[in-house]
Design goal:
By secondary structure, the protein is mostly helical. The protein is built from seven helices and no strands. The structure holds protoporphyrin IX containing FE. Belongs to the truncated hemoglobin family. Group II subfamily.
């Protein structure tokens, strides 16, 4: 639980359907972002599905990702891609825009971005 509301972030984002809408908006931006698009497969739907499972559990919902794929080891799973600081910035900017477009209120949006910043810069593996 977070932000003293008694609700998980997952609940505050609208549970499964709310999170899915945000993630679909997010990947719509990622595939248009010149720094990020080349890293992703043409068919983005499996990525959307795995991200939905992951962020569900990351934000306090059921552990869907671990149930299906085992330990997240997210930094390791990103090692085969050249993640630079600029790409982490771009990833976070796409997420910030996706949250805005899904009418997530400012305080919650900023909290979500702050929670994702740690992992994003931790995944940087290329100068
Ligand atoms: C820092 C910039 C980031 C870049 C450039 C990046 C890039 C990528 C790429 C290229 C993939 C693989 C797509 C494929 O399946 O071919 C991927 C998968 C994924 N990313 Fe990221 N990512 C970033 C940050 C993050 C963050 C911050 C999170 C969550 C905290 C995240 C969660 C995931 C998940 C859950 C997957 C699917 C993993 C799987 O295959 O099971 N990524 N990412």
């Amino acid at each position: 639980m977070d932000m003293d509301s008694g609700q998980t972030i997952y609940q505050q984002l609208g549970e499964s359907a709310g999170l899915l809408s945000i993630i679909e908006t997010f990947y719509g931006k990622v595939v248009q972002e010149p720094l990020l698009a080349p890293l992703f497969p043409e068919d983005i739907s499996p990525v959307i599905e795995r991200q939905h499972q992951f962020l569900t559990q990351f934000f306090g919902g059921p552990p869907l990702y671990s149930e299906r794929h085992g330990h997240p080891m997210m930094r390791a799973r990103h090692m085969r891609f050249p993640v630079t600081n600029e790409r982490a910035d771009a990833w976070l900017a796409c997420m910030n825009a996706a949250l805005r477009e899904n009418d997530v209120e400012d305080e919650l949006r900023e909290f979500v971005i702050a929670r994702l910043k740690g992992p994003a810069y931790h995944f940087v593996n290329t100068p």
